[in-house]
Amino acid sequence: MERGRFMPPVPYGPTRALTYDRRLVPAGAWIRVEQRTDAAGTTVTARLEGLRPGQAYGAHVHTGPCGADPKAAGGHYQHVPKPEADPRNEVWLDFTADAHGSGVAGARQAWGFRPGGAASVVLHDEPGGAGARIACFTVPFAPRGSAPERPALVRPVPERPALVRPVPEKPAPESPVPENPAPARSAPGGPAPAEKA
Description:
By secondary structure, the protein is mainly beta. It contains no helices and nine strands. Strands 2-9-8-5-6 form a five-stranded antiparallel β-sheet, with no helix packed on it. A four-stranded antiparallel β-sheet has the order 1-3-4-7, with no helix packed on it.
C-alpha cells in the first residue's frame, strides 16, 4: 500500500504524487493505492480525497514513473501489448468524486504485472481510455509472486535445560537400633516395665 499528497512539479522539488491541473486535483489532495496479488490474479484499489466534488475522473496504471512532464509516465500498462486501449487488458480505476471530493475505485485482473512493467497511476480529466493527464502517482507495483514472505510474529522458543536438576534418589539410611536399650521407666506408682524373655 502506497500513499501520497499531490503537489505541483515546481517549485516543491521531487515528489511521488504530482498534480498538473490544480482545479481538478488541488495541491494537498491525497491518494492511496493498494495492490493485492495471489495465484488467481491481481487487485488494485485506489482511494482519493480532496478532489473536485462531482468530477468524473479516468485513472489507469501506467508503465513509467511520474515526472514534471505528464508524458513521463508512458502509456497504459497492458498485459498483452496492443495498439488499442482495453479495460480487460489494462487496469482502469475510473470513478466520480462524491460531494466531499472523495473517490474509490478498484479493478481485478486474472494476471499479474511483469517485473518493472507498471510504475504509476495517472488521473485523467474524463473516464475512459483517453483524456488529458491531470495528476500522477508513482507506485512501485510488484509482479506476481514477488512479495517477500513475512516472518512469523511468534517464533518458537528453543527448549532450555531445566533450572533445577533432579537429584538421584539414594536409599534412606537404616536407623541404628542400640543393642541394649535403656529400660523404659514408668512414672512413680505406675506399672513395672515388662522384662525381656
